[in-house]
Fold this sequence. Notes:
alpha+beta; 3 domains; nine-stranded mixed β-sheet; three-stranded antiparallel β-sheet; binds magnesium ion; binds zinc ion
Amino acid sequence: MKTLEEVLVDWEAVIGLEVHTELTTLQTKMFCNCKLSHDDEPNANVCPVCLGLPGALPVPNEEAIRSIVMAGLATNCDIMPRSMFYRKHYFYPDMAKNFQTTQGPVAFCMHGHLDLEVVGQGAAERPDASIDKKDDGSYVTPVRILRIHMEEDAAKMVHVGGKEGRIGGAAESFVDYNRCGTPLIELVTEPDLRTPEEARLFMEKLRETFLALGISDCSMEKGSMRCDGNVSLRRRGAQEFGTKTEMKNINSFKNLHDALEYEICRQAEVLEEGGVVQQETRHFEPSKRRTMVMRVKETADDYRLFPDPDLAPFDLSDEFVEECRARIPELPDAKRERYMNDLGIKSSDAALLAGTPATAALFEEAVAVTDGKHAPVIANVMVNLLPGYSCSAAQIAALAGLLAEDAITSAQAREVLELVSGSDADPVAVVDERGMRQTTDTSTLEPIVDAVLARCGEQVQQYRDGNKKVLGFLVGQCMKEAQGSGNPKLFNQLLASKLN
Ligand code: ADP
Ligand code: MG
Ligand code: ZN
């Protein structure tokens, strides 16, 4: 098979995603008062409504509607003043009432978009000729969102005795209705994505947005956020879309990228050999890095979709929508901009910090401790040193302070982290107790610099001849001479001033 890069020279990939997100932060299910918790004993949280017993009447969860409206506003959707719930019929034990309550042609949220900023290596997946790229190879591309609708999750089935927990060959199957009726929002994109990396980034951005809204824990691992990837190929320059295949329930960012990559290459091979792509649902096997046919799509799914007679059409007042808008916190994009513009943080650090609410909160707390001083150093500590350790905002601020005044080197900062992580020890006290402070007194450093310059005549000449790189060598010599207690930055400055 050709590589993705080779395929995308002649072919354009067309990708659309369907993303399901469980509203895990709510207290109760979508249409009943059952507790929303998947960790309890199987079938502990059930009632006549979510078990679909005759005569039980559903009542929509207002908080769930608030959550989906917030999701719609945060993704630039139109919030529809009137929409309805529909019944989508199918017969399977994971939905005891034999239909899923979902929405019809008009969803609560319609026609939104998110702009994707594609940077770094991932941007190379998109051939340069197909889009305007900046000098550094990065680009911005809009992704339209067709709709976000409200529906409910099905029960969890557990198959025992088969391979990989699948139903085929299983000796027994169990149903746990705790998950049945969990409020679920489904977002469907237009087929605007063009590379696996764009799909991965879209998913990541959506996750960051929903996390910021606090509407879900968005765990791809636990399945509270999952997506189906649809992909087709067309010759570069062609207008019409090709036949798509769909990959169901992808559960990690990496698998999304890899499944699409594999599927694009597979389709290219089929097409180049003169074959046709079958419209089918495929399953990605991460360990083997390939996709397998799950089922071939029937010509028309007969779900007998019709308005649910038990649920009145939903009218959303302007007040309700405005109330939802007021609840939306600062979103990751705005946070990132603010970190860059107001705090001088570099773009990649700002994006990482702004992406996760807990990280952003810790960062802002640390900046507040220092009254806004040293923000870039705090960002650097959090992005490059902190992963793997656990520190308070005060500890991070203190560590950044020590680094900012050159009292310790970044190698020493790591040592300090090791010592204070998980405790309430003060980094400043630790540095003082252990005599780790770097000599910043130039009167003790100058003689060292002079000695090194006297000794390294050859390198001094090279520097004066224009080879500025030897400065690094000379700094190294000074550090050696000082036996690690000198500050490399100060040595650098002293050397440079003496050499110029
Ligand atoms: P289906 O009826 O098979 O579910 P939809 O029209 O509802 O298909 O689209 C489902 C998803 O597939 C959407 O995200 C859409 O953007 C995407 N999609 C539709 N047509 C194509 C295509 N030809 N190639 C790739 N993706 C597509
Ligand atoms: Mg579909
Ligand atoms: Zn219930």
